[in-house]
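Sample entry (155 residues):
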Amino acid sequence: ECAVRIDMPFVGEVIIPVSRIGALPIPKPPSISFAGISLRGASPTAAGVGIKLRVDNPNSFLMRVASLTYDLGVGEEKWVSASQAAGVDVLAHGSAIVDIPVSVDLRAVGAGALALLRDPGSVPLLLSGVMRLSSPLPGMTDAALPFTLRANDRD
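Predicted structure, serialized as tokens:
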């Protein structure tokens, strides 16, 4: 008996017997975009910010956003680095919102702090990191999807 070895995205190496007949679905990475930003509270030294990411799943199977590791800032100035569990399921050919609660030290962010407090939707944010994805399908391994998103960039 013969077999073909294929290295597939999000799955890893798959061994397929030559005698197998049928279609082989190739997983596609989900797309990630900003869905909103809001101020959730503020004190003289800190601001709570809610960032919403929209995750669109182009696949015919459920994907789970297991966790996020990210850096948040304005331009090249980093405000926050963090990791968090997400546990959000994105249905087949569907989308879901991942909510990222962030606490920003206003003393550390300087001039951007005032703009953040006045109108969080006007701040030119840069969010970059890695989204860890998983799927309940047998044989699928976890995948790390790097991302970089800009919001309200006026350049």
